[in-house]
Each structure stands twice: as C-alpha cells, then as structure tokens.
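ok so I'm stuck.
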Amino acid sequence: MAQTVSPAVPSTPAQHGRYDRILQAATAMLAAGGEDALQMKELSQRADVSLATLYRYFPAKDHVLLAILRSRYAAALAQVSAEPPRGATVRERVTSHLLREFRAEQREPELTAALSRVVSETSRSYSEVIERIEHAHLQILRQVAAAGGPLTESQQRVLAVVHDIFGAATRRWLSGIASPAEVRFEIMLGCRLLDLPDEAVEAELGKAAP
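replied:
not stuck anymore, here's the structure
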C-alpha cells in the first residue's frame, strides 16, 4: 500500500514567502475557473516556485485547498477578534456574521465550490486536518457569539448545530437546490436556536440521550 506523503511545513521567512505566494496564486486560479483551472504546473509558474518546491508543500491538489481554508479561517479569526461586536445579542451577532460570510461566498462561487468540496468529499486520510479546519470555523463563530465574553456550554452546543445548518445550506445553494434567498432564510431561522434558554437545550439533550 502506498504511503501518504506528508506536506512540508515552512519555517524560514523565505519559505513562508513562497508558501504564501502559492496560496495567493491558487486562490486566484480557483476563483477564476474552479478546480479544473487549478493545474499544478501552471500554479508553480504563477507562484514563481519550482514544481519540486510546490509538491514538497502540497503533494496533491487537496492539500492546496485545505491550506487555503486554514489560511482564510486564520485571517477571519484575526479580523473578527479586532472588530467591535455587530449586534446586541448572541443571535444577532452570529446571524450578521454568517450572512456576511454567505455574501462573500456568493461573490466567488467557483472558489466556494472547491473549498466546500474538499471538506465534504475528501478521503479519510485528510480527516485530521479537516477536523482542525472545522474547529477553526467554529472558533470564529464562538468569538463572534461571545464578543469577548464567555458562552455557556448549552450555547456552544447550539452554535455547533448552527454551524452545521450553515454548511448544509451553502452546499444546497452550490448544488442549485436552494436559492440565495432560501439560504439566507435557513441561516436566520437556524440562528434563532441561539435564543433558546439553557434549560430548554439541556432538556432536549436529555431526550436525545439513549
């Protein structure tokens, strides 16, 4: 059985520079033409790195896509951490953020489709990095929801459900099943779960337990 090749991790400033150029070039290619447009040889040329360097950091296209997601979520977390809260309640803040995130996805549908595909259809060998990416997205939502303060355990449970609703609604839009208006409705409706009192959440959790 062939072994999975682990991507190299940049450590020096020069290596980080090459790595970042690759991600920037790949993002532009995906936004313009989707996954079919992301050809490794052309990517190495656009990023001004050798093909050997490209494959050292990204042994396969999925590594490129997953790295783009991790980079974007890291940037998003820094952004929301520096912003003032948008809304007076947890529901208002999370709703505002997710609607803004969906608007950004709509502006680059080809890129959105590629990044959505890589976390939902890739092989189990990528499960660890996908789990870290999902955690990073949830961390952003927690930061937005809490606005610098603590969340209860029940609120965090509901936030994970809202996160799943957002992902499912986005995938339905990408597949043509749901219109943008329907996705916005599902986001807003799902976020209403954040208004549930902790006692109601715990009661439902108890009912779901075997």
